[in-house]
Amino acid sequence: MEVVKLCGSVSMNLTSKLQSSASALSVKQMNGEALQIAMRRTVKVHPAAGASARPGTCRCLDVDWDPEGLLGRPSGPGLINRNSILRKFKDEADKKAAVEAALKLEAEQRKAAREARVVPATDAGLVEYFVMMDPLDMEFEIARCRPRLTEDFRRYLRNEIGSIRLTLGEKTPEQQLRLEVLETLQRTLEEGVAAYDRLTANVTSAKDTLVKILTSKDKKATLLELAGENKLNKGLLALLDENIAAASAEGQDKMVEYMGKIRAAVVKYVTVESVTSA
């Protein structure tokens, strides 16, 4: 009973102190003081690990205890972690921008170098032109020089290779190297010309197919007919993509939408065989 009376007395004294100071303190300050008192009365404390029990040495078990909601709950990562993430994003964005700028500059320089080249007029000069060519530009130059890569040119190249092969006696290191270079060039040109001719044929066929689709009154029936003829292929999709990109660059939004619908319809009929054979 004495303990109960003592607790009641302490509670009454505490209440009277809070009431007497209400006029001097704001509600927020009162809540703060009440919070501090509650913290002192309810938070469990224990001696710090590895230290002797002594006054002032304690470890709070509930550091998030906030009954009034004054402090608010922490949200998201810590300040240091958040800053490091933001800095990483910034660095990645800067890195991406730098890479894109470098690629754009390289493309412009390569384009300028291509335009500055002069294609030789003779077969011998054309052979040396390709021998000294950057491998990255070989595909472009084969397409540009395709009219010059005739049977007469291929015959000239075969004759030069044959003359080195039929050299009497042991070949010098220079002759052996020249032979290997010319044989490699011969294979590269044969494969490149064949690929270019296939691509040209596909593009020509794709143009005819696209014209037929665009001029058709019943596009669904036309697509079914073309699908049966295996003419809906990767080349047609590439041609549609080029037209869509050109219309978009010119700001023709309606044309972009129209061609996009045609492309979506074509994709439904493109078979695996037509894609792989294109």
Molecular structure report:
- By secondary structure, the chain is an all-alpha fold.
- The chain contains eleven helices and two strands; from the N terminus they run ααββααααααααα.
- It has four domains: 2-60, no CATH class; 81-113; 117-202; 216-278.
- Helix 7 packs antiparallel against helix 8.
- The model is unreliable at 1-12, 20-25, 37-61 and 272-278 (pLDDT under 50).
- It has a two-stranded antiparallel sheet.
- Helices cover 70% and strands 1% of the residues.
In short, what is this structure?
This protein has 278 residues and is an all-alpha fold. The protein has helices at 2-20, 27-42, 79-116, 123-131, 138-144, 151-165, 173-214, 219-228, 234-249, 253-269, 272-277, and strands at residues 45-46, 59-60.
- Main beta-sheet annotation: 2 strands, antiparallel
Basic shape: flat
The gyration radius over C-alpha positions equals 41 Å
Give the rounded overall mean pLDDT.
75
| Number of structural units classed as domains | 4
The run of helices and strands is HHEEHHHHHHHHH
Strand share of the residues?
under 5%
Helix content: over 70%
Residue windows where pLDDT falls under 50 for at least 5 positions? 1-12, 20-25, 37-61, 272-278
Our count of helices gives: 11
Search tags:
278 residues, mainly alpha, two-stranded antiparallel ribbon, disordered N terminus
